[in-house]
Write a structure and sequence with these properties.
300 residues; 10 helices; 22% strand; globular; disordered N terminus; binds zinc ion
Length: 300
């Protein structure tokens, strides 16, 4: 009996991996000759976490990696009220840190794009920041509109609103992008002339395997479709007149030691602003922000 149960369990586990792989096969057939959507370089196929990825491999490769086994309509549903921080009105320290830092450098109006139901929106509103929020999840939009009305809206309406912001913040969003060019273009259109786009994601190192141990598990999540390098992200931003960039490392929230594999990114057309940001990044490149100790009265 035990053997039968164990066998069934093993088949179940293998089935999950097999299904993921089976979804990847037709995608691979379509994309066999695909070129990198960022730099048009040649790409190799790589299997990681039971999925298939394309990784840009030209000599001067931008290193961008992407999957394609997750339909855009599901990606556009967002993460709902659960979010990535453990539930309704939890977390958001990284957005908080970015808004307060950029406010200190003179940016005045902020959009938290893809912020979900994290607590940061309420904290920043309470503290009087000129901040609006947007998300692809209808239930998230409904949640915030009960308290804050029109200052929280569906992300699909960003362009039609026609409003410009000094800073757009996207934390744990850009790895979900299936259409990076469209997404960056939309963000550029919603930024003021010297505006800045900032946020965080895990980034990979060009020429290293997708599943390389420095960012364990990150691309195992099916919703994670785009695996950026600093070079590929800067190249995409540059295409949409956000040609100045700065990057900083950060430990994964809640982790006090280990590889600082989380990246903060800052892209803008304002070289003076990016220079100022470079000055506030510590010499070792690692931002000393840990969710366990950051503004404990607001977030724990
Ligand atoms: Zn590329």
């Amino acid at each position: 009996m035990v053997i039968i149960l164990a066998t069934l369990l093993e088949v179940g586990l293998n089935l999950k991996s097999t299904v993921k792989f089976a979804i990847g096969i037709p995608w691979l057939a379509v994309h066999s000759f695909a070129r990198c959507p960022i730099c048009s370089g040649l790409a190799r196929t790589e299997r990681a976490y039971g999925r298939l990825f394309r990784v840009c491999l030209d000599e001067e490769a931008c290193g961008f990696g992407w999957a394609g086994d997750f339909p855009n309509w599901i990606a556009r549903m967002g993460m709902g009220l659960t979010g990535s921080w453990g539930g309704l009105e939890q977390g958001g320290q990284r957005e908080d840190y970015l808004v307060r830092s950029l406010s200190g450098l003179g940016q005045k109006s902020f959009l938290l794009l893809g912020v979900g139901a994290t607590r940061v929106f309420r904290v920043l509103k309470r503290d009087g920041f000129n901040v609006e929020g947007a998300d692809v999840s209808v239930e998230v939009v409904n949640h915030w509109r009960q308290s804050f009305g029109d200052s929280f809206f569906h992300a699909d309406n960003l362009r039609s609103r026609g409003k410009k912001y000094d800073a757009i913040i996207c934390c744990e969003v850009v790895e979900h992008w299936l259409k990076p060019n469209e997404e960056m273009q939309t963000i550029r259109a919603a930024l003021s002339l010297n505006g800045i786009f900032a946020g965080c994601t895990n980034m990979r190192t060009p020429h290293e395997a997708v599943e390389d141990g420095t960012s364990p598990g990150y691309m195992a999540a099916l919703g994670h479709q785009a695996y950026w390098t600093e070079r590929s992200f800067a190249a995409l931003a540059g295409r949409y007149s956000l040609g100045q960039s700065a990057f900083a490392k950060m430990l994964k929230p809640g982790v006090l030691d280990g590889v600082p594999n989380k990246r903060l990114f800052f892209v803008s057309d304002d070289s003076g602003l990016i220079d100022q940001i470079r000055k506030i990044i510590p010499e070792d490149g690692v931002i000393p922000l840990d969710a366990k100790s950051y503004r404990p009265n607001d977030y724990t």
